């Protein structure tokens, strides 16, 4: 993002705070609660968004060096993603070509070779079958035809894209659009260092989980004692990029920062930036930390979903986190105005904990309640306010992708 764009975001947020305005969807929308309970809809969503659509399975920092690997079970098939000896990213079906054993059940690690735990066939990190134990006894096979089954994959703008279908196509620039692609490139996501992952398997539909990231109207009530101390609740910057969108949230520190000359304004201190990438990705940058949330439907239960919350740090902050201790107290002042990078690193660590804990114990806990309401069948629809434009966009997007009409406008009276 260029400097003028950064200043534009900051000025807009200050203006919203002063004028008590926020991004405006221009209408109130009616959203049927059946969208969180309809099993037929859930099946179509799964097919269109999670089988027939490219997926972000992580950021480049999850495969930091040749031989790094991660596994993924979230897409209905076991996936083994590797970085080969030459540094190239691959995604394979995690299945040995002898009799289908999974080559590893570890979530992540490093290996120069994958030795099958069943009969010790050996595969290289680029998928080649390189060893058949007791090949003479086993009988002759063409090794070149029995490498791991490879899925389409691409690493771009620091993200790892996989298509769950072997015949699927990935065109990252077409998916993101030029403007968002350029903006994401500027974040240099590829340099971010993986720090850890939390998994939230909860009784709420995957779209309710997404909804919790789609508005900040709830901050002053639901997050009164947590992130409301760090971020303004009712001043939202918002823009759309095709099916994707970006939220900008003013930090509390913006109130002090605005007194400084504009040359000293910093985007990372002024606000949190949250991207939604269709269909199921939330990418949140907040004061030096970066959180990637991947939200998956549960295929058996429409009212259940699994969120993988991975967090990352810039190389500089990652090095500091490694050498530093930890603090538990996060305030707007010590987070954004930290005058030493060591203090910032400590606070970033604590911020991640606060973020995950808030999502789990406040956002998703509330999402479980709204799911229960939807399950009851007694409440026909929810309302999305003018101040919740990302909810309109997210729901209209998936509806449009499934050939459904947009949400109806609510009209009072
Ligand atoms: S299933 Fe892998 S070596 Fe037999
Ligand atoms: Fe929230």
Explain what you see.
With 413 residues, the protein is an alpha+beta fold. The strands form 5 sheets. The protein has a 7-stranded antiparallel beta sheet, sandwiched between helices. A 5-stranded antiparallel beta sheet has the order 6-3-4-5-10, with no helix packed on it. A 3-stranded antiparallel beta sheet has the order 20-1-21. A hairpin with a 6-residue loop joins strand 3 and strand 4. The relative contact order is 0.17. The protein folds into 2 domains: 287 residues, Naphthalene 1,2-dioxygenase Alpha Subunit, Chain A, domain 1 (Alpha-Beta Complex), CATH 3.90.380; 108 residues, Rieske [2Fe-2S] iron-sulphur domain (Rieske Iron-sulfur Protein, 3-layer Sandwich). The protein contains 13 helices and 21 strands. FE2/S2 (inorganic) cluster (FES) binds next to loops.
Search tags:
31% helix, binds fe (ii) ion, 413 residues, Naphthalene 1,2-dioxygenase Alpha Subunit, Chain A, domain 1, 2 domains, alpha+beta, binds FE2/S2 (inorganic) cluster, Rieske Iron-sulfur Protein
Question: What is the compact description of this entry?
Answer:
With 413 residues, the protein is α+β, with helices and mostly antiparallel strands. The protein is built from 13 helices and 21 strands.
Number of strands: 21
Separation of termini? 44 Å
Cofactors, ions and other ligands in the entry: FE2/S2 (inorganic) cluster, fe (ii) ion
- The value of Rg in angstroms is 23 Å
Largest sheet: 7 strands, antiparallel
List the domain count as a whole number: 2
């Amino acid at each position: 993002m260029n400097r003028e764009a950064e200043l534009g975001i900051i000025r807009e947020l200050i203006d919203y705070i002063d004028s008590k305005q926020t991004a405006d969807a221009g209408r109130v929308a009616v959203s049927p609660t059946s969208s969180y309970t309809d099993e037929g809809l859930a099946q179509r969503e799964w097919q269109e968004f999670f089988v027939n659509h490219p997926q972000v399975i992580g950021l480049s920092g999850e495969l930091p060096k040749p031989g790094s690997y991660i596994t993924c079970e979230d897409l209905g098939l076991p996936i083994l993603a590797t970085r080969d000896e030459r540094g190239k990213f691959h995604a394979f079906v995690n299945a040995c070509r002898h009799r289908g054993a999974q080559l590893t059940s570890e979530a992540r690690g490093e290996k120069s070779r994958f030795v099958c735990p069943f009969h010790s066939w050996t595969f290289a990190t680029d998928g080649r079958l390189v060893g058949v134990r007791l090949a003479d006894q086993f009988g002759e096979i063409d090794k070149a035809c029995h490498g791991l089954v490879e899925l389409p994959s691409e690493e771009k703008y620091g993200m790892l894209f996989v298509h769950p279908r072997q015949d699927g196509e990935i065109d990252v620039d077409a998916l993101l659009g030029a403007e968002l692609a350029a903006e994401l490139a500027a974040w240099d996501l590829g340099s971010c260092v993986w720090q850890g992952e939390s998994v939230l398997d909860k009784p709420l539909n995957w779209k309710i989980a997404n909804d919790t990231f789609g508005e900040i109207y709830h901050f002053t009530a639901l997050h009164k004692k947590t992130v409301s101390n760090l971020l303004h609740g009712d001043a939202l910057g918002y823009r759309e990029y095709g099916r994707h969108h970006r939220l900008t949230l003013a930090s509390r520190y913006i109130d002090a920062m605005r007194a400084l000359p504009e040359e000293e304004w910093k985007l990372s201190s002024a606000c949190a930036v949250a991207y939604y990438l269709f269909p199921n990705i939330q990418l949140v940058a907040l004061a030096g930390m970066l959180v990637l949330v991947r939200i998956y439907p549960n295929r058996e239960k429409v009212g259940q979903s699994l969120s993988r919350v991975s967090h990352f740090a810039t190389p500089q902050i990652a090095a500091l986190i490694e050498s530093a201790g930890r603090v538990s107290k996060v305030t707007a002042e010590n987070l954004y105005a930290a005058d030493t990078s060591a203090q910032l690193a400590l606070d970033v660590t604590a911020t991640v904990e606060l973020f995950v804990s808030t999502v789990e114990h406040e956002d998703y806990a509330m999402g479980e309640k709204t799911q229960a309401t939807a399950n009851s069948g007694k409440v026909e629809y929810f309302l999305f306010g003018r101040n919740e434009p990302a909810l309109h966009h997210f729901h209209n997007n998936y509806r449009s992708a499934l050939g459904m009409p947009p949400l109806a406008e609510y009209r009072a009276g």
